[in-house]
Amino acid sequence: MKLGLAIDLDTCVGCHACATACKQWNTSGTIGPLTDTNPYGKNPNGAWLNRIRTFEVGESPQSKTVNMPLSCMHCEDAACVTVCPTGASYKRDEDGIVLIDQDRCMGCNLCAWACPYGARELDPGSGTMKKCTLCVDRIYDEQLPESERQPACVITCPTNSRVFGDFDDPESEVSKLHKQRDGKPLMPELGYNPVNTYLPPREPIQRPQGGKVLGKVKQIVNRIIYR
After folding, report:
1. pLDDT digits (tens, 9 = 90+) for 197-206
2. What average pLDDT does this structure show over 80-107?
3. Torsion of CA 173, 18, 13, 44, to 10 degrees
4. Residue 226 has pLDDT above 60, yes or no
5. Residues 193-219: b if buried by 16+ CB within 10 A, e if exposed
6. 123, 35 in Cβ contact below 8 A?
7. What is the pLDDT of residue 205?
8. 3-class DSSP assignment, residue 18
9. CB–CB of 147/154 below 8 Å?
10. Which secondary-structure segment (H or E) carries 225?
11. 44 burial class (0-12, 13-18, 19+ CB within 10 angstroms)?
12. Reduced to 3 states, what is the DSSP secondary structure of residue 57?
């Protein structure tokens, strides 16, 4: 089993609902609480396990805004696990999830420096490292309805841009999306083999210039009036 996320960059609107839901769930979850710094002030900050980066592709007027959520990629060959001096960072054999043993983490930051995705954050409150767990305490909770045994970010996403599943199962939705949409891992050249995959944005629709559109509208109006 190889659990992970397929994230659709074409439909993500950058609303930060995933980041907020992640923060809420994990504050009361297995790695919580998560520290907040000046949460209601001018410059709020704190420990976040999921952040959204935004950039533009293409040239105006055909440019497109791409919102790119970033969290732990649960790499198959995770550098954060390799460098951890206490064994606090580890990758589970049964499902491939990368986790941190909070009791063994000494907050040395080596894993954060080794992670090329910036997916780990030192929590100043606990002095330990925090990261996405794929809501491991939720996805295996048999007291929840099966439809709710998904990461909080997936359940919350209003555009269904995030899909959770087993990449080792060719019939799973994530595997099918990865194949159909030519899913891309982030920075595969580094050799860490990230599990999470990104579904690339589709090509923008080539719309006619404004003058041509107005010309067509005038032609239609004239036909209606003078027919």
Report:
1. 999 987 766 6
2. 96
3. -160
4. no
5. ebbbbbbebeeeeeeeeeeeeeeeeee
6. yes
7. 62
8. helix
9. no
10. helix 210-226
11. exposed
12. strand
Whether the per-residue pLDDT at 106 is higher than 80: the answer is yes
d(CA 157, CA 210) in angstroms, rounded, equals: 34
Query: Taking a C-beta distance cutoff of 8 angstroms, is the pair 101, 90 a contact?
Result: yes
**Rounded Cα–Cα distance for residues 185 and 195 (Å):** 7
The mean predicted confidence, pLDDT, of the chain is 89
Rounded to 5 degrees, what angle do the CA atoms 211, 215, 220 make? 150
pLDDT digits (tens, 9 = 90+) for 155-189: 999 999 999 999 999 999 999 999 999 999 999 99
Domain count, the chain: 1
For the domain that residue 29 is a member of, what is the CATH number?
3.30.70.20
Pairing of strands 162-166, 3-8: antiparallel
Local structure of 188: helix, strand or coil: helix
| Amino acid symbol at 164 | F
Structural domain boundaries, residue 23: 3-226
Strands (DSSP E) contained in the chain are: 3-8, 36-37, 45-46, 51-57, 64-70, 89-91, 98-100, 121-123, 128-130, 162-166, 197-199
**β partners of residue 90:** 99
100 phi, psi to nearest 5 deg: -125, 125
Model pTM?
A: 0.84
Question: How far apart (Å, rounded) are the C-alpha atoms in residues 156 and 181?
Answer: 23
* Across 6-34, average pLDDT: 91
Mean pLDDT of 23-27: 91
